[in-house]
Amino acid sequence: MTAGPGPARQRGRVTLVGGGPGAVDLLTVRAWRALQAADVVVADRLGPVEILAELPPHVRVVDVGKTPGDHPVPQERINELLVEHALAGAHVVRLKGGDPFVLGRGGEEVAACAAAGVPVEVVPGVTSAVAVPGLAGIPLTHRGVTTGFHVVSGHCAGSSDAADGPLDETALSCVRDGTATLVVLMGVRSLGAIVAQSLAAGADPRTPVAIVENGSTAGQRLTRARLEEAAEVAAARGVRSPAVVVIGHVAAAGLLEGARERRLAGAGV
User: Fold this and answer.
1) pLDDT digits (tens, 9 = 90+) for 22-36
2) 104 with 145, same domain?
3) Fewer Cβ atoms within 10 A, N terminus or C terminus of the chain?
4) Tetrapyrrole methylase domain: from which residue to which, for each copy (predicted)?
5) Which of 39, 96, 99, 186 is catalytic?
């Protein structure tokens, strides 16, 4: 007598959720719904980690958080965890800070799921590259100042791929020529190299720089300096990650106040 087939195993799936810059109320409604429907949440250190305490009691939380210079769970293992739990039938939510596809390695995680035949959905998040400067009163574009911005990672500083410095020519031109605002994520450790490379390329030493730490949280702090002194000022103030570095004229103190005064003057007020 031949045994019949066993019960069909439930097919799992992965939802890649962008959690935003840190404040829970910057989560999107779709992100919140995904978290509430999760069986397993694989969570980063950054993003709205307070939300983990509000998950249904049955949800298993897997911490894969990284700190600068310390990656206890390498990216390859994170990819494997997503696939393993999904193949076991779980709805896996990968909770990431910011947006999964903005320097978040989300593309690698989607590719790993696709290669294993695991259905995957991406829920966009509010990227810290835009949100954190905005929360500090810094517009990345401003009429009469600049109409574009360029986002880079500061992690490449000191790597074999960055022999001449952490910035590529496009990023350098933003700073040197003022063609666009330069936004550097994960750039605190490489700030000195960024400054040195920019000055060597001919950037104006007086170019405004703003550094926003812990954006959207109670610990948010803004540091401003000229390009030539930015690394020294940041060190003196004890600037730490996570932080977003903004380089360009939109980072100047009083930019928006000055615009308001010009409008009032033009209106004859």
Assistant:
1) 999 999 999 999 999
2) no
3) N
4) 13-230
5) 186
